[in-house]
Amino acid sequence: MQQFLQGILMGLGVSVPIGPVNVLIMSYALRSYTKALCLGLGAMSADMLYLALSAFGISQLAKIPIVFACISVFGAAFLLYIALGIYRDAKRSVHLQSVERGSHVAVFGKGFLLNIFNPYVIMFWLSVSASIGRERFGLALAGLVCGILSWITLFALAVYKSRAKISDRAARAFAYISALILLFFALKLIYAVIVGEILN
Fold it and tell me: How far from each other are the two terminal CA atoms of the chain, in whole angstroms?
């Protein structure tokens, strides 16, 4: 039971802080709750994968500087791509139906890639994996799923339910801010690679 509760806390710890995934969930939830949920599920899948790899020591490969630098560069490029997409779509009305391009599967994949190429997510799971015993890995994984699923479900729902109170002008401003936040995270990754601070 302790491992299950620990998994819940880890799930909340990795999903609650404001970052690229939460920013994108908010952007999607203004138009489609199910797609916002799919994005969160994709990101959660990446978290589960990294937890599994960390528990069995495989993700230690990510500590190799060149491997970590490649992940960071790909992550930065992907964030820039998403930021550009949000910026281009900012003028689209939040109240239009079916305005969000891409299938639910594509949105799921976007969430997965967003976390799989985030070196800070990797470092989080590398730092917590030592506290999880392999014999109780299943309980920790179940707790992790419950913690993350609770957050992405309720967070996306709260944004979606309040969208009617958000004017198109406010939604457009939020889209521009979201693009800037994602740009910030992308530049932060690039800077970290240049100065080598991620692994220090």
Answer: 35
